User: Fold this.
Amino acid sequence: MAQVLEFRLPDLGEGLTEAEIVRWLVAVGDVVAVDQPVVEVETAKAMVEVPCPYGGVVTARFGDEGTELPVGAPLLTVAVGATGRGAAPDGGGPPAAGAAAGTDSRPGSGPGPGAGSGPGVGSGSRPDSGSRSGPGAGSGSGAGSGASGETSGNVLVGYGTGAPAARRRRVRPVSVPSGPETPVLREPGGVTPDHGTAAVADPAVEGPVPVISPLVRRLARQSGLDLRRLTGSGPEGLILRSDVERAIDTGASAAAAQAPAREAPAPAPAPAPAAAVAGSGRGIAEEVRIPLRGVRGAVADKLARSRSEIPDATCWVDADATELMAARTAMNAAGGPKISLLALLARVCTAALARYPELNARVDTDRREIVRLPEVHLGFAAQTERGLVVPVVRSAQRRSAESLTEEFARLTDAARHSALTPADLTGGTFTLNNYGVFGVDGSTPIINHPEAAMLGVGRIVPKPWVHQGELAVRQVVQLSLTFDHRVCDGGTAGGFLRYVADCVEQPAVLLRTV
Assistant:
């Protein structure tokens, strides 16, 4: 006899108390193996795949995609020892006969009718959900990070090919008269939740809805739009946000055109100025509310705290980076691992911090003390589809240019694939911000609280420059340093920035610090 065990959201470390469900990796009725990832959640630090410690058949899931759960809340229940309808853990074989079926559960509710190993009815996932991949289906990468056209062969990333036909059936929200025998529960936006009695299967529309972005799904759900009726303009029919917005506008225009004739026409408004009409966009102005949670919320809190607590100041200087670029070219031409420009700038930072340790510090406001730190854990700003993140290179002052290049590449790749761990994003003592990749010369960045300083690097472009007493075209870069005025005065900050500029202009200066 199968034993039903409940798996709760575990403590993900780093003092995190809650997480948002981004993508379910299994559906009700799927067979899961021990330590198989079952759900992808987003915390204030990173995107994390959560493995289940039990093996068996999933009988219930608690929470939809987008639901925020506290640590310790139920995630799903597993019937240990049962035989499910999904593929075997290795992805092979057909669906098992007599497969267990059940219904997704809301947070705090128990398994729905039909959960367990007996026959039942249940779709296992939301009507508009794209998370259909069972233990053998393709999981995809970058889910929840925006509607991209990434594909794997001829299969849309995140959907897989091994899902049974019963699970691929879609339900369409309809107006069903509710009564004692047909209870109908509807979510905001007119979407009917997964309780087989309240949704009507549409045999004419089969297969997964080609949508990757949760934002696109949420926009359609809030507008009561059926995504199965849309034809996507993205690669392989992928439905993009622009497709949903266009369909919403078309529907609103059609509804306005079909208004009852018996209604008296409203008085014609006064003609709007031409400038106002030109700037009205698609004609229907609606405010958009985006929850500040997850990574976006954590960044907002940290930046607001930085500006409210830290009396920051910024100084900047232009530097001739021609020799630095030439040195990098010579190093890479000599063979061996390639050296990135960011790695050379990081070496400059660590050398400057060795001379000016006041800037590798933080302020303990409770004790009113400045804490100078012995190690340089160098953060670097990285823009991803999920927002701005700052991965941290541990003990950067002990690394060579080759080691720094490798670590930057590893962390950048992990950031692009939402694979950074909480440890990768915490503990920084100084930040290097290369905003030149955005094509700008300068900036006054906000300090990454609780650090004491940030070095900003603009784009490197050819400019007229006086070199050795003559006007020449040189590769010029603007450097800026934003610092906490509590840890040092302008003289220290200026000395740090001037040393950085000297190393950029004459890389041989670094040899004196080795």
